[in-house]
């Protein structure tokens, strides 16, 4: 789960990482009152999870309440690359002497944590990586050891941080690692980390991606869930406990297992169609899960046919078949269902489907034939 | 022959008294796997259909002589269960648990690498390992596999592993061993670990590899294949049409920026001389041709 900047900054603050004094506002009045508290000049920043906010006019400086009203009312509700701005972060504008980049993530190849620092902060790090890769210093951290102050100090020194920034940056790196590990993040990134003319170092931006698998030990993450940017289909799927990602095609997809679901998207594409979604009903799905999955797909108005691709392992095919029959009787499924069943109890599953009188379910013996049929039906059902 | 396991492998099940552990532990035993014990703290002295249960891996290993453990416990407890197995003298740990936090997984991987270099972890978040006719540890349905070789399978995805077994068995092509390495960011066993063993195993004549988007494990496997493998490899990579920035079910299956795409993986594999198929069915057909030509 990606956090908004303001949530990232609040998360940083929990681990003692200094950020500019500020607060979040979802209306103009709140924006003004935050600005009065943090002191002018203030920066007003659109809270969206997409790059290029500045260019789109989503970041403005205000020197008075009048300017806050003007900018906040412009930014709130603004559409930035398809993301509507629901709230703004307002903080005291910092004087900037130097801009740096620091981050922690997992290096999957090395199977270690990776710390990256650069004295060329404030621009896209991918751009620095392309134009001047030598300007990014990397350090692998053994998760069983962590990063020491001495290692952090050496890294920022070697990256040519200003001598006045060394101690502050060292302290922040150690705290940021705590935030990354104890905070169960997949990524923590500060760009820019700034040095002020007074010699203070703090985070001017915050990018945090949390590891959904660790949610069980972070009840405080519930508040982030509420602000997550999901479309209606994704919200409905989540409420039913399904692993769903909305896409833009016309063939609804239901499969068991992430790999098979991805593969199903691929074969639909190879048959000349495109998938409306990714939906993995997981291992051991029962009839009820199957019925819920069909309801979610059915709520998508773009769907013209539904391809159910099941290879039974822990999931038993007769449960899947029962779920399909149940869904048909429970809700009016608008599109034809093409079904491919293999694996555990496939024969029993096919017998259940054979008794269906609705005519909505078409069984196909292989994945490729089923994909072909689903795509043809989608094209004929416009 | 087979890799990592054989007909003499003695297995304990950590979590045998739970519903999943019981179901799959007993299924594995029915298949012919030597399931010799179970571990559930506080339940020593009881048994599951005749399989004795112990409080700790150490006790269980001392009494049964087991060398392999099947870990079937929830994500919260799985990291400690894996470490307990390593401490208890287990040499092969198969963990099917899905949803272990990435920080725990990275820590466990490095503890094993640093302190227990002779212990191998397969998984987590994987279907397990099956050597048809000899040993089945995990959740794979034994009846879709066919004994006798000559193909070894290694896969990052669960259901696609079944699909691969099924496609080959239907065509009369058997398997030596099928390893599901799992779809998480830090799997205990890599493609390369399995490819190396398959290259050494005299009964394995060809290898089927199933990859998916995310990370660079397939690219690294391609480098290894080009340099070290004499046996033919057929591959399929899932997720050609997956969008960037979305986790496709597995925690490890995500395209970030331009890295981790199926296209890049397929190109790397092709450049290494691997026969790359656009879907699992085609991969099965390609493998049938490869086996015929052996």
Quaternary status: heterodimer
Rg for CA atoms of chain A: 26 Å
Distance between the termini of chain B: 18 Å
User: What is the average of the pLDDT values of chain B?
Assistant: 95
What would the average pLDDT of chain A be, to the nearest integer? 93
Helix content of chain B: 25-40%
Shape of chain B: globular
Percent in helix of chain A: 25-40%
Identify the CATH architecture of the largest domain in chain A: 3-Layer(aba) Sandwich
Largest sheet of chain B: 7 strands, mixed
Overall number of strands of chain A: 18
Indicate the CATH class of the largest domain in chain A: Alpha Beta
Strand segment count of chain B: 14
- Main sheet characteristics of chain A: 6 strands, antiparallel
Order of helices and strands of chain B: EHEEEHEHEHEEEEHEHEHEHEH
Mass-distribution shape of chain A: elongated
Number of discrete helical segments of chain B: 9
Radius of gyration of chain B: 18 Å
Largest interface: A-B, 52 and 60 residues
Our measurement of the CA-to-CA distance between the termini of chain A, rounded to an integer number of angstroms, reads 35 Å
